[in-house]
């Protein structure tokens, strides 16, 4: 189950990052289309599809896992351990496919999507059609958005690349880590595995630090009340494309 669950969670994390990234892309580049096509039902269907895909690509690891009798250095005796041997051409090819589908392709797509978003927000921040007050607000939001996007890409690359390299190294060069003693070998393995979890844990922290909308939704999920709709208060999102404003004349939300 460990091999299955770890891979499923990693795949799901990447797919969720991709979904959020494309959501940002549509919100910035096609705000009206993003607003009109956004509803809870579609989001729930998308989440279900992502988890099904993540589980489907992790099932082979569950099938490949097996128990072996090996000597345990701490217990000083032979014990049953779970391993996932990649000992055939088909298994190696599958691992390479996983590396491409859940790292190389998403990383390339994230870079393209975020470069387009950054160029768009920079272009709009230089627009002469906005008033000075809106332009100042938009400029601050753009800086926050760019920082968030760059942070996500760096976190994604730094946290997941060592794990993917280790997997490929173990398959195609199994003796590469033989020079390490047991303590250093375990330290390297544990550090790389922790990085995978840090990627999943780091993304919501980045969103929480930068995004007002994320913090508001998080407080709402915890049941905390927030005073968002005070008279004359505007709650801006990450960009100037959409904002909520309580009108002073008729009290309607725009």
TrEMBL record:
InterPro entries: GPCR_Rhodpsn (IPR000276), GPCR_Rhodpsn_7TM (IPR017452). PROSITE patterns: G_PROTEIN_RECEP_F1_2 (PS50262). It comes from the Eukaryota. GO terms for cellular component: plasma membrane. The chain crosses the membrane at residues 12-32, 44-65, 93-122, 143-171, 191-210. Keywords: G-protein coupled receptor, Membrane, Receptor, Transducer, Transmembrane, Transmembrane helix. This is G-protein coupled receptors family 1 profile domain-containing protein. It is a multi-pass membrane protein. One of its GO terms (molecular function) is G protein-coupled receptor activity.
């Amino acid at each position: 189950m460990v091999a299955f669950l770890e891979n499923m969670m990693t795949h799901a994390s990447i797919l969720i990052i991709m979904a959020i990234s494309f959501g940002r892309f549509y919100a910035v580049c096609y705000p009206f289309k993003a607003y009109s096509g956004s509803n809870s039902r579609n989001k729930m269907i998308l989440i279900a599809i992502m988890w099904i895909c993540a589980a489907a690509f992790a099932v082979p690891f569950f099938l490949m896992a097996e128990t072996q009798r090996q000597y345990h250095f701490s217990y000083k005796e032979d014990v049953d351990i779970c391993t996932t041997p990649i000992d055939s051409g088909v298994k190696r090819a599958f691992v390479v496919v996983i590396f491409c589908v859940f790292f190389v392709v998403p990383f390339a797509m994230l870079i393209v999507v975020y470069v387009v978003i950054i160029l768009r927000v920079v272009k709009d921040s230089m627009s002469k059609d906005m008033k000075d007050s809106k332009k100042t607000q938009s400029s601050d939001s753009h800086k926050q958005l760019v920082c968030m996007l760059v942070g996500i890409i760096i976190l994604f690359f730094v946290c997941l690349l060592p794990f993917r390299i280790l997997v490929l190294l173990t398959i195609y060069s199994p003796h590469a880590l033989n020079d390490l003693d047991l303590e250093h070998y375990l330290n390297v393995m544990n550090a790389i595995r922790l990085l995978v979890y840090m990627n999943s844990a780091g993304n919501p922290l980045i969103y929480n630090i930068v995004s007002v909308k994320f913090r508001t939704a998080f407080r709402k999920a915890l049941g905390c009340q927030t005073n968002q709709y005070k008279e004359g208060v505007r709650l801006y999102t990450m960009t100037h494309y959409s904002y909520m404003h309580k009108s002073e004349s008729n009290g309607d939300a725009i």
